[in-house]
Design brief:
elongated; mainly alpha; 64 residues
């Protein structure tokens, strides 16, 4: 299903003239250092507020 939607979406972009290259290469994006630090600060505040803890990687996702 996703592949079908992706292919149709890409075809629509080609028809609209937004995608002209069949080889869609990844785009490198960057984020401003100030924004990165602001986001980090907000995530740390939310972690404290909601008392979030890190779950070990080997732990199952469902609580039993």
């Amino acid at each position: 299903m996703e592949k079908w939607l992706d292919n149709n979406g890409l075809a629509d972009l080609h028809r609209a003239g937004f995608a002209t290259d069949r080889l869609q290469r990844p785009v490198e994006l960057s984020i401003d250092l100030r924004v990165e630090h602001a986001l980090r600060d907000e995530l740390l505040k939310a972690k404290e507020k909601y008392k979030a803890r890190r779950r070990p990687a080997s732990s199952p996702t469902s609580d039993r």
